[in-house]
UniProtKB/TrEMBL annotation:
<dbReference type="InterPro" id="IPR000483">
    <property type="entry name" value="Cys-rich_flank_reg_C"/>
</dbReference>
<keyword id="KW-0433">Leucine-rich repeat</keyword>
<feature type="domain" description="LRRCT">
    <location>
        <begin position="133"/>
        <end position="182"/>
    </location>
</feature>
<keyword id="KW-0472">Membrane</keyword>
<protein>
    <submittedName>
        <fullName>Leucine-rich repeat LGI family, member 2b</fullName>
    </submittedName>
</protein>
<keyword id="KW-0325">Glycoprotein</keyword>
<dbReference type="InterPro" id="IPR032675">
    <property type="entry name" value="LRR_dom_sf"/>
</dbReference>
<keyword id="KW-0732">Signal</keyword>
<dbReference type="InterPro" id="IPR005492">
    <property type="entry name" value="EPTP"/>
</dbReference>
<dbReference type="Pfam" id="PF03736">
    <property type="entry name" value="EPTP"/>
</dbReference>
<dbReference type="GO" id="GO:0005615">
    <property type="term" value="C:extracellular space"/>
</dbReference>
<feature type="transmembrane region" description="Helical">
    <location>
        <begin position="16"/>
        <end position="39"/>
    </location>
</feature>
<keyword id="KW-0812">Transmembrane</keyword>
<keyword id="KW-1133">Transmembrane helix</keyword>
<keyword id="KW-0677">Repeat</keyword>
<dbReference type="GO" id="GO:1904862">
    <property type="term" value="P:inhibitory synapse assembly"/>
</dbReference>
<dbReference type="InterPro" id="IPR051295">
    <property type="entry name" value="LGI_related"/>
</dbReference>
């Protein structure tokens, strides 16, 4: 038996024999986990128009139909942001399967989309067996508690697994304690028809900009935030050759953009007020940088630095320092290690750098005020093949979020002596594990090249991140938070598809 979002389980007997499917229906969203048991003869399969196909999955975004001819080796079919207003009676040639798993996420289905299909088709007048499922009797489960109280359907006893004061109580007997039940969600706000490796959001003269490196068009696109339309719009286009990185830096009230390229060196551009665009300011000395992979910009005291991370065996990650006329090489870090990412952070009051690598554990450097250099401080063992690292704090406690492409991404906590693992998150095609905070709520988003990216929310009681929502971005490369006024947004870049902006919204589950 498979387990899905909305957890409506069906026995499908159409063209695929013995197919067990779980179907989730939301406003324009269908999710099916397929457990394939017996199949007909394999046919030549052509990926449906508008879909992305791998050896074992199909993802369709904006689809107006449900694919019918699914090959036997496909074990997951995901339909997102589609225009399905209903599911036809013969869409699956399905009958209700007795065992059904229900999940809190169906609140969005009922509250926002007012989709009665879920209740009318899958619950009413059918025997439901919900035993063995664990439910948190909180605001997000309130819709289920109310349905259990009011429904005439025959439903097995369902008990609360938490919180502690309600544990063991029948869900239908939970008293209505709150007049208001407020949670949060991430909804699509803007789709940007641009493929990008990252989004660096920066503020300059009361305006908001985003710098997007676009390798396919050999450019660094600068977008400007429209305060009236509350959306990003094109502002400038810095052309180059195989641009893979764009990062902003503000020095003496002047705005600069660092542009790294795979070929023909890298450049720094300065905003020209008269021309209202960025113009070339400096060519960066890249003698020891062979394959730039990341740019980390930071200040130590009054000094401005940036680090170019080199991911080749022949290159060296290089630190550059500002000297009033431009940026120049200041220090060469370790060689031959194929660095993938770098993060600057404060470690017990001292400036520190951590570098991840494909060939060794993460390395921590600490700033030495005496010689004005970074010196090796420590390494984090048993964390090989991490592709990115981000530092963040919760209640002033330092954490690291490290992404592993295939395996387990990790959350680590600083003990005062070293970093220790506190949580692992299964990863499939993860390039980033990005921490961010909106409205005093901490989140992590774990990217995926093969499925939906997972958003986790910090649980204060458990002191862990709990899986919370999903968003779909094709081959995501970064998730960058933006807060403007009273609204919060998450800018997601795509390596092979369209970049997206999601808005963080409050949802009333009362």
């Amino acid at each position: 038996m498979c387990q899905c979002h909305c957890w409506v389980c069906l026995h499908v007997s159409a063209s695929l024999l013995g197919l067990i499917a779980c179907v989730s229906v939301t406003a324009g969203f269908v999710y099916m986990c397929l457990s394939l048991l017996v199949f007909q003869a394999k046919r030549i399969f052509k990926c449906p128009s508008g879909c992305t196909c791998t050896s074992d999955s199909i993802i369709c975004v904006g689809s107006s139909f449900i694919p019918r001819a699914v090959p036997s080796d496909i074990n997951s079919l995901l339909l997102s942001s589609n225009s399905l207003s209903n599911i036809k009676e013969d869409a699956f040639s399905a009958k209700i399967h007795k065992q059904c798993y229900v999940n809190n996420y169906t609140t969005t289905v009922i509250k926002q989309a007012q989709v009665c299909l879920l209740i009318e088709l899958f619950f009413v007048h059918n025997i439901r067996d919900l035993r063995g499922n664990l439910f948190q009797c909180d605001c997000e489960s309130k819709w289920l508690m109310l349905w259990l109280k009011r429904s005439n359907a025959t439903v097995s006893d369902v008990y609360c697994a938490g919180p502690a004061d309600l544990k063991g109580l029948l869900m239908k007997d939970v008293p209505d304690k709150h007049a208001k039940c407020i949670s949060t969600d991430f909804v699509s706000h803007q789709i940007i028809n641009t493929q990008s490796m990252s989004a660096d959001i920066f503020f300059y003269k009361e305006d908001i900009y985003a710098a997007l490196p676009v390798p396919d068009s050999d450019s660094c696109i600068i977008m400007e935030w429209d305060h009236i339309e509350t959306k990003f719009r094109p502002f400038d286009n810095i052309t180059g050759q195989s641009v893979i990185g764009c990062r902003s830096v503000l020095i003496n009230e002047q705005s600069f953009v660092i542009v790294t390229q795979l070929f023909n060196g890298s450049r720094i551009y300065k905003f020209n007020q008269e021309q209202n665009k960025f113009t070339k300011f400096q060519a960066v000395e890249m003698l020891n940088v062979s394959k730039p992979n990341d740019i980390e910009v930071f200040r130590i005291g009054d000094e401005q630095f940036f680090l170019i991370v080199d991911s080749s065996k022949a290159g060296v990650s290089t630190l550059f320092r500002w000297n009033d006329t431009g940026f120049f090489p200041h220090q060469f870090l370790h060689e031959w290690f194929r660095d993938t990412d770098a993060e600057f952070f404060d470690l017990d009051g001292k400036a520190a750098l951590i570098l991840t690598s494909r060939s060794q554990p993460p390395i921590i450097y600490q700033w030495n005020k005496g010689n004005q250099m970074f010196v090796l401080y420590d390494e984090i063992p048993n964390m090989d093949d991490m592709v990115s690292v981000k530092a963040f704090r919760i209640n002033n406690i330092l954490y690291l979020a490290m992404a592993c492409y295939i395996g387990d991404s990790k959350v680590l906590k600083w003990t005062g002596k070293n970093f220790v693992e506190v949580q692992g998150m299964p990863s499939r095609g993860a390039m980033v594990l990005q921490p961010f905070m909106f409205k005093d709520q901490h989140y992590l988003v774990l990217s995926s090249d093969y499925s939906f990216s997972q958003i986790y929310r910090w649980d204060k009681e458990k002191q862990l991140f709990i899986k919370f929502r999903e968003v779909y971005v094709q081959w995501p490369r970064s998730f960058t938070p933006l807060s403007t006024g009273q609204r919060d947004f998450l800018f997601a870049t795509s390596f092979k598809g369209k970049s997206k902006v999601f808005e963080h919204v409050s949802v009333d589950y009362s």
